Input
Amino acid sequence: MKTGSKYCRLFESLQSREEDELTLSFAEIEAILEAPLPPSARETRGWWSNRGGGSIQAMAWMEAGYHAVGLDLERKQVTFRKPIRRYGVRRVGDIVLWTGDMIKGLRAHMNMMQSEFAAELGVRQQTVSEWERGTYEPRRAMSKLLTMVAEDAGFHYGEENQD
Output
């Protein structure tokens, strides 16, 4: 996070936190920023989405190790949570069976939106969405590709359980 950025103070505040999850009111965030939030932060969910490219506010909390996971526009508060760092990995032989949480974690690790991640893998954005929601699981060939992408990106997914 660039020093002097409008959201640098938020980055620094979150980076110094030890909690895995915390809820801040808009007023608390404004106190940290020493500036008001824009109207779009108070009115739209999209402002709080965890997108890496082009969103300096999302970069602030994501680079500090958090994702915005809950937004209550009525109460004017947002919940930040550190992403899961360890996954219960299942394998069949040498193939990792990728779950929705693992795919979402890899995508977040790579700071990509679903559409960018889909393009990287050569699939549709809807496919990535369906994997992340658990509607479908990747087939074995795609699981091999996901494992290679994860290794190239330095994504560590934790303990392994044999099937």
Summary: The chain has two domains: 8-81, 89-162. The chain has a mean pLDDT of 88. The two ends are 42 Å apart (CA to CA).
